[in-house]
Amino acid sequence: MPRTVRPQSWPTFLRLQAAGLAAAVVLTVPVFQATAGESSDRIELIGVADLSGDMLDATGETGTLEDGSPVNRLGGFSALDYTGEGNQYLALADRGAGDGAVSYQCRFHEVELAIGSGGSRRVEARLVGTRFLNGPAGTRFIGSLQASPDWTSGGDVRLDPEGLRLTGDGRLLVSEEYGPWLFEFDRDGTFLRGFETPAKLTVRAPSADPKAELEQNAAGRQPNKGFEGVAVAPQSQRIYTILQGPLIQDTRSVEGDKPFGRFARLVEFHADGRPAREFAYPLSDGTGISEILAINETQFLVLERDGKGGDAAAFKQITRFDIANATDISGLDRLPADELPPGTNAGVVETFLDLLDPAYGLAAIGVREKYEGLAFGPRLDDGRLTLVISVDNDFKPEASNQFLVFAIPESELPGFGWDR
User: Fold this and answer.
1) Model confidence over 110-149: pLDDT tens digits?
2) Please, are residues 236 and 220 in contact by the beta-carbon 8 Å criterion?
3) Is the peptide bond before 180 cis (omega within 30 degrees of 0)?
4) Model's pTM, two decimal places?
5) Distance between CA 287 and CA 275 in Å, rounded?
6) CA–CA separation, 104 and 98 (whole Å)
7) Residue 346 in contact with residue 338, Cβ under 8 Å?
8) How far is CA 387 from the centre of its chain?
9) Which pLDDT belongs to residue 27?
10) Would you tell me which CATH number, out of the four given (1.20.1280, 2.40.160, 2.120.10, 3.30.70), belongs to the domain 23-412?
11) In what order do the strands lie in the sheet with 316-322?
12) What's the chain's Rg over C-alpha atoms?
């Protein structure tokens, strides 16, 4: 089957190797090993690598945040993308510790994930560099709920980064939850532009108190359920973002519980930053979306999960989401909570990879609460694709920054549209 190719090659990443940053600060834990070519006909977890939760990033910052934690603690990997160069990935940190309680300056990291060849598939992770995400006109993007909710205000702006993708010309797309906003940056973290968020997705009265914000708004994204992931279609370079959960107006009240709604919205953007179409993603009960990754022009992998870890975890899946025959719902300012209107089709969702399947053995190392990042990596020497998942450790020093590497036979992804 023919495969589409990226229209432009990936530019060389500006390496940010910090003086003295060596393997001593990296903890690598090879958990699973597989013989090359031994299991090429099925999806396989071939390795797990960890960077210690108490290590520091490569900014060289000193000092502490409001909670007493180091201002440069490495953590909170909410998104991941492959640069197309060797073993280099970009890992996006979210808003910092404490759910918006600290003025952590938003940033991304360059990480090397090396996968061994031959008889052993040892996976090793290494931090290479760190860059800040800078706001327009010299302002800062910080994680604090107390910062300005208006990115054009001229001061420090609140940002909760959750999705990251590289475009074909090597720029960074970052989606976030507070606005929700989608921004474009240069590869050094310089702000380039903001995309236009559809009005139905924004709240009229943003607040530093999430509970009060929900009570004060009848429409818009729910608190902490904004743009959770961003995807770029391989051939057209169309850009998509997806919300973690349903909009306020797409839910119904449930006595003694959180608002219930079945549909999260996928938003497509024109190249000039204007919103184009929207599609409905049908959620499973009690789940939210962590990430989206384009397979081809109409199909995506979506990371959908509950918020529980260990033995309590009940749903951690990567689904295949197909919008080929889905209805454009951009004209619908509100959706029924349970079923779409007659004649309106959601995208088709099917399970692609169940992380809780005993075949992958994650129970042996502990199922994590927040599997967050998702990226296709380079091919293995046996021709299989690699799919990498990153874990958000919430900046807890006792919890590692973890990467899971899966080998995917291309037969499992018909129509795969990337050149790897």
Assistant:
1) 999 999 875 567 899 999 999 999 999 889 999 999 999 9
2) no
3) yes
4) 0.91
5) 26
6) 10
7) no
8) 13
9) 40
10) 2.120.10
11) 288-294, 299-305, 316-322, 348-354
12) 20
Looking at the predicted structure, is the pLDDT value of residue 25 above 80? Answer: no
Residue 119's pLDDT is 56
3-state secondary structure of 158: strand
Could you tell me what percentage of the chain is helix, strand and coil, using 3-state DSSP and rounding each to the nearest 5? 5, 35, 55
Ranges of H-type helices in 185-338: 210-216
Q: How far apart are CA 227 and CA 269, in angstroms?
A: 13
DSSP 102: S
Place of tokens 């180091």: 70
- What residues have CB less than 8 Å from 378, skipping those under 6 apart? 82, 86, 87, 386, 420
Which range among 36-45, 142-151, 209-218, 350-359 shows the weakest confidence by mean pLDDT? 36-45
CB 275 within 8 A of CB 196: yes
CA–CA gap between residue 96 and residue 159 (Å, rounded): 10
Q: What are phi and psi of 38, to 5 degrees?
A: -70, -35
Of residues 397, 372, 395, 376, the one with CA closest to residue 385:
376
Rounded to a whole number, what is the distance in angstroms from the first to the last CA of the chain? 15
In angstroms, the CA 299 to CA 176 distance is: 22
Q: Where are the domains of the chain?
A: 23-412
- Per-residue pLDDT tens over the stretch 54-98: 999 999 999 999 999 999 999 999 999 999 999 999 999 999 999
Q: Is the alpha carbon torsion for 153, 156, 158, 160 positive or negative?
A: positive
Band of residue 41 on the pLDDT scale cut at 50, 70, 90: confident
Residue 120 confidence (pLDDT):
63
